């Protein structure tokens, strides 16, 4: 028995969705690790606000990693689970030693820019495959990310050191 048979989804049409979800999973895993590093290494102006914010962001990212992996499983595939593989396919750069608030915020904004673009493409793929559940999941991500972009820009305009 195949899960897709019960979900009324075509395996061939869903294959592109699964592939894009695998890519998104790798990117989210690297983003999670970067956020942990920012949380540990942040110094200077904005420390108290950002230290706490990064923790809530990596907790949220961990939940999304699990949700993406489970969606891949529901669509009849197996999510990647090795960081060595994530590093090979991720489009988010792995970072370390970033401790200035302006740099951390800039990296996060660039990551969200990437996620927003990729999730919009993935929503289109999901809609083409009649996979409304994946499209809905990603629409929720977009809503949260767009708000976070707005908030980070508002924060950085006032609180981050300028280059």
Characterization of this structure:
The protein is an all-alpha fold and 163 residues long. The mean pLDDT is 94. 34% of the residues are buried. The chain is 78% helix and 0% strand.
Parts with pLDDT < 50 across at least 5 consecutive residues: none
CATH architecture: Up-down Bundle
Number of strands: 0
Structural class determined from secondary elements: mainly alpha
- Outline type: elongated
Give the averaged pLDDT, no decimals: 94
What is the makeup of the main sheet?
none
Helix content: over 70%
The CATH class designation is Mainly Alpha
Q: What's the total helix number?
A: 6
Give the count of structural domains.
1
How are the elements arranged and paired?
Layout: H1 3-7, H2 11-41, H3 47-74, H4 83-89, H5 101-128, H6 132-159
In short:
78% of the residues lie in helices and 0% in strands.
Question: Keywords, please?
Answer:
Ferritin; mainly alpha; about 80% helix; elongated
